[in-house]
Amino acid sequence: MDSISKSLEQDEDEEQSFQKTYQSFEEFLSRLPRQCCWIPRFDLYLYQGCWYRLFFLQGVIAAQQHFEAQLTDIFLCSAPKSGTTWLKALAFAMVTRKKYSDLSSHPLLSTMPHECIPILEADFISKKLTNQTTKLPLLSTHIPYHSLPKSIISGGCKIVYIFRDPRDAFVSLLHFLSRATPKDAIYISLEEALELFCKGVYSYGPYWDRVLSFWKARKQASQRMLFLVYEEIRKDPLPSVKNLADIIGHPFSVEEENEGVLQKIVGLCSFENLSDLDVNKKGKFRPESAFPMDNNAFFATARLEIGGVI
User: Fold this and answer.
1) Listed GO molecular functions (predicted)?
2) How many CA atoms lie within 13 A of 46 on its CB side?
3) Domain extents for the chain?
4) Is 142 considered catalytic here?
5) Active-site residue among 106, 142, 146, 175?
């Protein structure tokens, strides 16, 4: 069999495997607990203790059944609106700093961080992400630890979790939805949203269950896992960023530290710098998708009394 025929056969096998996944998915979907979402057009489904919108639930199950993590992979994990954008920017800048040593032409100046690093449960199911297509070892996810594909948990790859004060995460989520959701959408009241958030009934909720799952896992696998605190990074970013570089296998050399490379990356990835870029003020996130969003939805400017910048 020539290489082209073999490749086509592999593609057909993969397609059949995905089709079987979708068929079995449809069969059990009706049995899952279901809840109205904060945005009425999207229902939530409870799966393995976590609430998901339908599209992401499909992605979670597909990843669980088909995704094979590599030993060199680095997974950036978080709850929604807990510093994901910032963490992606920092990790991307670290891993690619040899290639993009000239920060004046760095990709982050013209590309939103979420476009630089794939989202496991979104991109795997859309086939933008396969085990062979990722040019970088970086991937992100909001999936709780216990629901990650087994190859991630047992495969020895690196895992980074960023935690944020849930009060700030809640307010940030409201700001995000107000910017990212179509203007004609019907919103629930603030009181209703807060009650549902506290009960854990929102996309990727509940909050504390996810945090505890990663915290406990980190205590058992400290050599390959890092637990970051958003508020600590904002207060003093250099120590946390240095720890991040160490744990993901891209430590800064003494020469780099003396040349201020660490400080330059922190400056490049700062909220103030990223939020002021044209691409993040005027650009669109996945404009070809069924639910495109303005990039500025990821860069809210309101300040909170609790923890700081959203």
Assistant:
1) sulfotransferase activity
2) 11
3) 15-298
4) yes
5) 142
